[in-house]
Structure to design on (1042 residues):
C-alpha cells in the first residue's frame, strides 16, 4: 500500500518536471498521453492496482489519485497557455515594423492665418456678448467719411488714402469708394439697431497705398462698437483689458495714450507691454517696451446725433484693430505682404 | 574735424562745412552752444498747434508742471504814419479769407542775414535760413503755428494788396520759380496789376523781399482750409517731394481765427528788432471781433458720464489752466461746472467732450478704473450666413484643402480669361487704381485662384495643390452699389496623395472634386445631383452643374487646357468647383432635423448586374435603385464596357441592400421586389439584367 502512495508522489514529481521541458503543443499532447492516456497512461496503470488494496486504504489512495489527476490537468492547461503565448509572441515579433517610417497622412488643410486670427478675436468678444456683423465693402462717401465727422476737404481725410470707384452720379459726383476702414458699420449698425448695441465687424478694407512690410492696399480690420445708457471710458478700458489678457496672456499690462480719430472723443491708442521682452525693450516693440494694438475712443456726440441718438442719454465706445498686425506679432511674421500672396509654403505653416 | 551740417545731423545742408556765427565762443561744447533738445512730435490732424513751439510748450508745461513764458510782442511804433491812412488792403472774398491782418515797417535794412541763434533754431526745425525778413516770418510761423508773408511794399502796384479769387487764366510765378495757371476757385493776393501770391500757399516772385527792400507789408491771415486744400490738390503743389508747403500744411488743418494778430505783432516786433526801421502806427484787421475768445463749459455729470470717474472741481480746473485755458468754476448742489476760455492757439476745442479729453489725457488714462459695461446685452443674431461660411471652411479644411485670401481687385484680363458668361455690365472699375493688376472688382473668384495655382507651381510646388477661397464677388448693378455675393471656389490638381513609401499615387480628376462637394453637401444634409453642363473655361464632357432640389447652386469641372495655358498652369488636370454660398445658407435654413429609425430587422444583400446604353448616366440608374421601396443602400461596384459587352453598351454592377424598418424580408419578397425594380429600370433608363 505504502508503495502505491509513494509511487503516486514519485509520478507527480516526474510528470511536473517533464512538463517544464515541453515546448510545443504536440509534445504537450504526448506528455498527456504518457501520464494520463486511458490505455497506457502511467496514472491509470498505477490505479489498476487499486482494487488489490485493502478496503480501508482504497479511499485514501483514491483521494490522492484524484488530486494528482487535477494537478496534472491544471499543469497541462497552464503549460498550453504558456506555449500559445510564446508562439503568438514569436508571430508578432515577425511583424515588427519600423515605427519611424512616416505615417499614411490624411492631409489636413489650414484656414488662412487671417481667418484664424479673426476667429480667435471674434470668439473673445462673442463671449463678452457681442454680435458679429458684416457690411458692404463698396461704401458711400457718407458712411465712410461724412457720417464719421470727416466732411469733404477735412484734413483727416489724408489719414485714409481712398480708392474711388469710377462711377459718377447724376450730380457728377463720384460717391462710391472701397471702404478705408470698417467704421462705416458703426453708423449702419446704429441706424439698424436699437441700444443696447454690442457688435464687432471683421471685414476687408482698402487703401490707395504703396505696399511695404507693414502696409497693404487690401487688409482686414475688426471694428467694435458698444452703445447703451451709462457706457463710460472705464468700460472701454475694462473691455480692452479683458481682450488683451485673453489674446496675449493674463500677465499683460495695457496702456492708453491720446490719439485722434474724428469719430471718437476722447480718442486713444491702446498698447500692451511687449510680450516678447516683458517691457524691457526689444526688436518686436522697437525698444519701447510697448506694442500698439488698436485705436479706440468714446463715440463722438455728433456721430450719435447723426443717427438719431441723444448723446445726453446714450454713450458708447468704439475700437478698431488689424488682425494681420496681431497675427504678425503673435507669429513673428516680418512682412504683411506674405498674407495675400498666397504662397502655400507660408499658408501651410499656420 | 570740420563737418557739414548734414554730417552733424543738424540739417540737410551739405554745401560746405558748418561755420558758426561769431557769438559762438571757442571751447564750449556744441550742445551747450546750441542749447536745445530736439523733440519730435507727431501732430494729429486736429492739433495744428502742435506744429508750433507755443503749442508744444504748453503741452510739455502741463505734463511736467511748469509754466510757459509767452514771446514778447511789444514794439515801438516809431513812424508818424498811421496804417489806416495808407489803404494797403482790400479783402474782396471774406468767406475764403475770414481774417486778414497787416502791419507795415518802413526804412528797414534787409541786407544782413538773421542772427545766429535764429538760424540755428530754424535749422533744428528743418527750415533753411534765407534772409532776415524771410527767416523772421518762418520763425514766427514755427513759434505760433501761424504762416505769415512779407511783401515788398514798393513792388506792389499802387502799394496795396487785394485778396480775391483768381480770374480764370491768370498766371502766377511763385517764389520757387514755378508758374501756375489759376482758376476762379483759387484765392490769390494781388495788386492792381495781377497776382502777387497764392493765398496761404506761397508768395509770388514779383513782390518778393530782397536785399534792397526798404518797406514791407506783413500779412497774417486766416484762410479757409478747404480752399487751400483744393488749390494744393488742383495744382499738385509740392516742395522737395512733399505735398503742399509749410504754410498750406497748416492752413489746411483749419487754424484758429484768434491767431493772426498775435503772430503779426510778434513778427513786426522781430522785424523792428532785427532789421531796424520804423513800424507804422497800428495794424489793419478785417475782423477785429474775432479776438474775443470763446468758451466751453464742462459739468461734473458730463465728466462722469464719459469717463466713469470724477476728478473733482479743483483738479479739473487746474489741469485746464495748465494747458492755457482760463477757467471759472461754480457749484450747484452736488454738481459743479468749469467754464474754460479757449486759448488763442487752440482750434480743436468745441464741445464739453473735448475738455473731458484734455483733462483725462493730461492726468493720464491710467487714473481711470477698468470696468465692464453693466447693462443688458443685445439678443443673439440669427446669423446663418456667417455660420454657413464658417462651417463650409471647416469642412473643406478637414478634407485637406488650404484656404486662400486674395485681392478682390484684379486686372480685366484675369476676369475675362476665367469667367463663363460675362455679367451684363462691365465689372466696377477703380477710378484711381494702384496698378493695372488691381483695377476691377472681381465678378468671379476663378481667375484669382488660377493665378494662385500658377504662382505656387512656379515656386516649385509640383506634387499637388488643393486650395479654396470663400470670398465676395461684386456683381455690378446699374446706378447702385454692386451686389456683394459670397462665393466658394475650389481648385484641385496634381497627385491624389503624397508620394511616399507606402502609397501609390494617382492623378486627381473630376471625381476627387466631386467627392469633396458630396462630403461638403452631405454635412449640410443636402443631396446634390450632377448633370452635364457646358462652361466656356471648363472641359465639356467633364463638367457638371450641381443642383439641389432642381435648383442650380454651382458648377464643377476640369479646367479646359486652353484656360490652363492662359494662366500658365502646367498641371494637366485641374478640377474647379464654384458654389453660390447664399444658396447653401438657404439650405441650412430649410434643413430638417428628422432622422430615420435604425431597423431591428435583418438585411438581405443582392448583386444587381445591369446592361445599359453607354450614354445612360449611372447616377440616374442609381437614383432609381436607392429610391425604390425597401432598398436601404446601393453601391456601384463596377462599370465595364468592352469584350463580352455589345458595342455601345456598358455593364453596371450594383450591390443592393434590402431591409424593411418593420419586419423581416423573405427571399421571396426580395425576388418579387427585384423584378419590379428591373421593370422600372428598363422603363426609365432602358437598363436590363445582364445575363451571363
Amino acid at each position: 500500500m505504502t508503495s502505491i502512495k509513494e509511487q503516486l508522489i514519485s509520478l507527480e514529481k516526474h510528470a511536473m518536471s517533464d512538463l517544464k521541458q515541453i515546448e510545443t503543443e504536440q509534445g504537450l499532447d504526448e506528455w498527456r498521453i504518457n501520464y494520463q492516456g486511458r490505455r497506457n497512461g502511467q496514472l491509470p496503470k498505477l490505479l489498476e492496482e487499486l482494487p488489490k488494496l485493502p478496503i480501508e486504504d482504497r479511499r485514501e489512495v483514491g483521494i490522492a489519485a484524484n488530486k494528482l489527476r487535477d494537478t496534472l490537468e491544471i499543469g497541462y492547461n497552464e503549460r498550453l497557455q504558456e506555449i500559445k503565448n510564446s508562439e503568438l509572441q514569436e508571430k508578432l515579433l515577425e511583424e515588427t515594423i519600423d515605427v519611424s517610417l512616416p505615417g499614411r497622412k490624411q492631409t489636413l488643410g489650414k484656414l488662412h492665418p487671417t481667418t484664424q486670427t479673426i476667429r480667435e478675436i471674434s470668439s473673445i468678444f462673442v463671449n463678452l456678448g457681442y454680435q458679429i456683423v458684416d457690411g458692404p465693402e463698396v461704401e458711400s462717401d457718407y458712411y465712410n467719411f461724412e457720417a464719421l465727422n470727416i466732411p469733404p476737404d477735412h484734413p483727416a481725410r489724408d489719414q485714409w488714402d481712398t480708392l474711388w470707384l469710377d462711377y459718377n452720379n447724376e450730380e457728377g459726383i463720384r460717391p462710391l469708394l472701397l471702404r478705408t476702414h470698417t467704421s462705416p458699420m458703426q453708423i449702419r449698425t446704429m441706424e439698424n439697431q436699437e441700444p443696447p448695441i454690442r457688435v464687432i465687424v471683421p471685414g476687408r478694407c482698402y487703401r490707395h497705398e504703396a505696399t511695404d512690410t507693414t502696409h497693404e492696399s487690401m487688409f482686414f480690420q475688426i471694428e467694435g462698437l458698444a452703445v447703451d445708457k451709462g457706457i463710460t471710458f472705464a468700460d472701454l478700458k475694462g473691455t480692452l483689458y479683458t481682450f488683451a489678457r485673453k489674446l496675449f496672456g493674463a500677465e499683460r499690462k495695457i496702456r492708453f495714450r491720446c490719439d485722434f480719430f474724428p469719430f471718437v472723443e476722447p480718442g486713444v491708442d491702446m498698447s500692451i507691454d511687449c510680450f516678447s521682452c516683458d517691457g524691457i525693450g526689444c526688436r518686436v516693440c522697437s525698444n519701447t517696451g510697448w506694442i500698439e494694438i488698436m485705436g479706440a475712443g468714446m463715440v463722438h456726440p455728433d456721430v450719435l446725433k447723426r443717427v438719431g441718438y441723444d448723446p445726453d442719454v446714450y454713450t458708447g465706445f468704439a475700437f478698431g484693430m488689424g488682425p494681420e498686425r496681431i497675427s504678425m506679432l503673435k507669429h513673428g511674421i516680418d512682412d504683411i505682404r506674405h498674407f495675400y500672396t498666397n504662397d502655400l509654403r507660408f499658408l501651410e505653416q499656420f | 574735424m570740420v563737418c557739414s551740417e548734414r554730417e552733424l545731423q543738424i540739417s540737410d545742408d551739405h554745401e560746405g562745412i558748418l561755420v558758426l556765427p561769431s557769438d559762438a565762443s571757442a571751447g564750449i561744447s556744441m550742445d551747450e552752444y546750441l542749447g536745445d533738445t530736439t523733440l519730435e512730435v507727431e501732430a494729429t490732424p486736429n492739433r495744428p498747434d502742435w506744429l508750433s513751439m507755443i503749442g508744444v510748450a504748453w503741452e510739455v508745461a502741463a505734463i511736467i508742471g511748469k509754466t510757459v513764458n509767452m514771446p514778447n510782442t511789444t514794439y515801438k511804433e516809431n513812424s508818424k504814419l498811421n496804417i489806416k491812412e495808407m489803404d494797403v488792403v482790400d479783402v474782396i472774398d471774406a468767406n475764403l479769407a475770414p481774417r486778414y491782418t497787416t502791419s507795415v515797417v518802413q526804412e528797414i535794412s534787409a541786407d544782413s542775414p538773421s542772427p545766429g541763434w535764429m538760424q540755428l533754431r530754424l535749422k533744428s526745425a528743418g527750415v533753411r535760413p534765407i534772409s532776415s525778413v524771410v527767416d523772421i516770418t518762418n520763425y514766427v510761423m514755427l513759434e505760433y503755428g501761424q504762416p505769415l508773408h512779407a511783401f515788398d511794399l514798393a513792388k506792389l502796384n499802387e502799394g496795396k494788396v487785394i485778396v480775391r479769387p483768381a480770374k480764370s487764366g491768370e498766371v502766377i510765378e511763385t517764389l520757387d520759380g514755378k508758374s501756375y495757371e489759376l482758376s476762379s476757385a483759387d484765392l490769390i493776393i494781388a495788386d492792381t496789376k495781377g497776382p502777387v501770391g497764392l493765398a496761404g500757399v506761397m508768395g509770388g516772385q514779383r513782390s518778393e523781399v530782397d536785399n534792397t527792400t526798404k518797406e514791407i507789408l506783413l500779412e497774417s491771415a486766416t484762410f479757409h482750409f478747404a480752399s487751400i486744400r483744393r488749390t494744393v490738390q488742383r495744382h499738385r503743389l509740392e516742395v522737395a517731394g512733399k505735398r503742399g508747403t509749410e504754410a498750406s500744411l497748416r492752413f489746411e488743418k483749419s487754424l484758429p481765427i484768434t491767431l493772426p494778430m498775435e503772430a503779426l505783432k510778434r513778427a513786426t516786433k522781430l522785424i523792428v528788432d532785427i532789421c531796424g526801421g520804423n513800424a507804422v502806427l497800428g495794424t489793419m484787421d478785417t475782423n477785429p471781433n474775432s479776438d474775443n475768445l470763446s468758451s466751453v463749459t464742462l459739468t461734473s455729470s458730463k465728466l462722469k458720464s464719459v469717463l466713469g470717474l470724477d476728478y473733482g472741481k479743483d483738479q479739473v480746473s487746474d489741469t485746464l489752466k495748465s494747458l492755457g485755458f482760463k477757467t471759472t468754476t461754480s457749484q450747484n448742489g452736488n454738481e459743479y461746472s468749469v467754464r474754460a476760455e479757449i486759448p488763442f492757439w487752440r482750434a480743436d476745442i468745441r464741445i464739453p467732450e473735448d475738455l473731458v479729453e484734455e483733462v483725462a489725457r493730461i492726468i493720464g488714462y491710467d487714473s481711470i478704473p477698468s470696468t465692464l459695461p453693466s447693462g443688458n446685452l443685445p439678443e443673439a443674431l440669427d446669423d446663418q450666413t456667417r455660420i454657413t461660411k464658417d462651417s463650409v471652411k471647416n469642412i473643406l479644411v478637414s478634407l485637406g484643402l488650404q484656404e486662400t485670401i486674395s485681392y478682390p481687385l484684379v486686372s480685366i484680363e484675369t476676369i475675362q480669361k476665367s469667367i463663363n458668361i460675362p455679367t451684363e455690365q462691365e465689372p466696377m472699375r477703380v477710378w484711381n487704381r494702384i496698378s493695372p493688376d488691381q483695377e476691377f472688382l472681381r465678378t468671379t473668384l476663378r481667375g484669382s485662384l488660377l493665378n494662385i495655382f500658377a504662382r505656387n507651381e512656379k515656386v516649385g510646388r509640383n506634387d499637388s495643390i488643393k486650395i479654396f477661397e470663400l470670398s465676395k464677388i461684386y456683381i455690378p448693378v446699374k446706378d447702385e452699389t454692386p451686389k456683394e455675393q459670397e462665393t466658394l471656389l475650389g481648385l484641385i490638381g496634381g497627385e491624389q496623395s503624397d508620394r511616399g513609401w507606402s502609397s501609390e499615387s494617382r492623378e486627381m480628376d473630376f471625381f476627387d472634386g466631386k467627392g469633396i462637394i458630396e462630403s461638403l453637401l452631405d454635412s449640410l444634409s443636402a443631396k446634390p445631383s450632377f448633370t452635364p453642363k457646358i462652361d466656356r473655361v471648363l472641359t465639356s464632357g467633364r463638367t457638371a452643374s450641381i443642383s439641389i432640389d432642381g435648383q442650380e447652386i454651382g458648377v464643377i469641372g476640369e479646367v479646359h487646357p486652353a484656360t490652363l495655358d492662359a494662366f500658365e498652369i502646367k498641371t494637366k488636370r485641374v478640377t474647379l468647383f464654384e458654389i453660390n454660398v447664399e444658396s447653401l445658407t438657404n439650405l441650412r435654413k430649410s434643413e430638417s432635423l428628422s432622422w430615420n429609425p435604425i431597423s431591428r430587422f435583418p438585411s438581405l444583400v443582392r448583386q444587381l448586374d445591369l446592361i445599359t446604353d453607354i450614354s445612360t448616366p449611372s447616377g440616374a440608374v442609381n437614383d432609381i435603385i436607392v429610391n425604390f421601396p425597401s432598398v436601404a443602400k446601393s453601391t456601384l461596384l463596377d462599370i465595364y464596357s468592352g469584350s463580352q459587352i455589345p458595342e455601345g453598351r456598358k455593364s453596371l454592377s450594383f450591390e443592393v441592400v434590402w431591409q424593411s424598418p418593420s419586419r423581416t424580408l423573405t427571399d421571396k419578397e426580395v425576388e418579387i421586389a427585384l423584378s419590379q425594380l428591373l421593370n422600372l429600370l428598363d422603363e426609365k433608363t432602358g437598363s436590363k439584367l445582364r445575363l451571363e
